[in-house]
Write a structure and sequence with these properties.
Blueprint: H1 5-12, H2 14-36, H3 43-65, H4 73-99
Helix pairs in contact: 2-3, 3-4
Amino acid sequence: MSHDTTHAERAHGGPKIYTLVLVALLILTFITVGASYVKLGSGMANVILALGIATVKGSLVGLFFMHLRYDKPLNALVLLVSLFMLGLFLLSCYTDFETRDPLEPARLKAPVAAPAPAAAHGAH
């Protein structure tokens, strides 16, 4: 019984494709780490860049390592839309958090420290 590896490699990319995707993931990881040390205007720009790179990396993993590229196109589309929506949700949460005023109660008073217990005078 012989096994046709050339057909399997053609159907799923083979080592060359996996190596290229690995190199792309490593490059994107180095870009993400490097970008974290650079302030791109507001903190929001850094988050947008990080989410964009994470979305591309997640898409590469799903499409090639999970074989969604070679599966029905609808499955790959579901993955990409899901990653996009997750990124949009996280970005919306961050935007909401950054634009709110800090919440402080109007009648907030600092607690007064309780007086120290009086030392007993006289010894028994």
